[in-house]
Write a structure and sequence with these properties.
The structure holds two protein chains of two kinds. Chain A has helices at about 5-10, 15-40, 40-60, 70-100, 125-135, 140-150, 155-160, 165-190. By secondary structure, chain A is mainly α. By secondary structure, chain B is mainly alpha-helical. Chain B contains five helices and no strands. Classes of the chains: A mainly alpha, B mainly alpha. Chains A and B meet through α2, α3, α5 and α8 of A and α1 and α2 of B.
Chain lengths: ~190, ~100
């Protein structure tokens, strides 16, 4: 039986069994959130490890004002977005380096082809197109969409994770769907016609 | 529904029924290795706070000592005369010449 208060108490006491239970309970949720945002298996695993290391080290700072899962989702989103920003910085740096040195090692910013392992086989190709469109959304819209669609969190839960009001989440998701529609229409015009 | 609309609906619904991706069975061990690997680099906030307090205490103690020494050096002439008289270090007449 999973008792959150007992677990937090034992984690603060430094009990390894409690930490093992925490990892078992939350690893899928955290990994899948990171995977949805990062769209890369290795990056998602790396971010998941970082999330649990942070939880282990800063559990003393957890005041219990929100649910443990909300706090962990928040860390997972922050870490994943940091990974994305770091990758973008590296890409920009590589681009500049390419301009000045004509380095052939520069990888062009080509669209990702991410295959989520949980997608049904008949939807694989379509899901890849959708993930590519999701990847082009602004950070906030992308986060809200992933938490809603992949993690099946309620608007209230997403608002707690993102520190925004429920109405802001509704608006973010509405705009995300509108933008996805536009991106997919563009894709259709170019490729499927 | 035309071809385009059908395609859009199909793509938008392609995540329906998505299952969670499986996590590596070694994840827990990798996390523990990472925690232990970083253990030497990690300095707790409490330790940093204690070090800072100790540093400032030491600094204020040193300042206090230096100020006391300074006061000691600026002993007035009368104090010197008193001490000299008490220990009969100098001739009283000599002092009067000054």
């Amino acid at each position: 039986m999973f008792d959150e208060l007992t677990m937090i108490k034992e984690l603060k006491e430094g009990k390894e069994s409690a930490f093992k239970l925490l990892v078992e309970q939350f690893q899928k949720k955290i990994y899948n959130t990171c995977l949805g945002l990062l769209q890369n298996n290795e990056d998602a695993e790396d971010a998941t490890q970082e999330v649990f290391v942070i939880v282990y080290k800063s559990i003393h700072q957890f005041k219990g004002e929100s649910k443990l899962s909300t706090w962990m989702y928040r860390i997972a989103v922050t870490k994943s977005l940091e990974h994305i920003r770091m990758k973008n910085r590296k890409k920009r740096f590589a681009f500049l380096q390419h301009l000045f040195t004509n380095d052939d090692g520069f990888i062009k910013n080509e669209p990702k082809h991410f295959y989520h392992p949980g997608v049904q086989l008949e939807n694989k190709e379509r899901a890849t197109i959708l993930f590519s469109a999701i990847d082009q959304l602004p950070e906030n819209q992308k986060t809200a969409f992933i938490l809603s669609k992949l993690e099946d969190l309620s608007y209230t839960e997403i608002s707690e994770v993102m520190n925004l009001s429920v109405s802001s989440i509704e608006s973010l998701l509405f705009r995300a769907k509108q933008n996805l529609q536009k991106l997919l229409e563009n894709y259709y015009q170019k490729n499927e016609k | 529904m035309n071809k385009k609309e059908k395609w859009l609906t199909d793509v938008e619904n392609s995540l329906n029924g998505i299952e969670s991706a499986e996590v590596s069975p070694y994840l827990y061990h990798k996390i523990i290795t990472r925690i232990n690997g970083n253990a030497k680099e990690y300095v707790s906030n409490r330790f940093v706070f204690a070090s800072l307090v100790s540093f400032f205490l030491l600094l204020s103690f040193n300042l206090f000592i230096f100020k006391s020494l300074d006061k000691g050096n600026s002993t007035s002439k009368n104090d010197l005369i008193k001490v000299s008289k008490a220990f009969q270090l100098v001739n009283e007449n000599e002092i009067n010449y000054n």
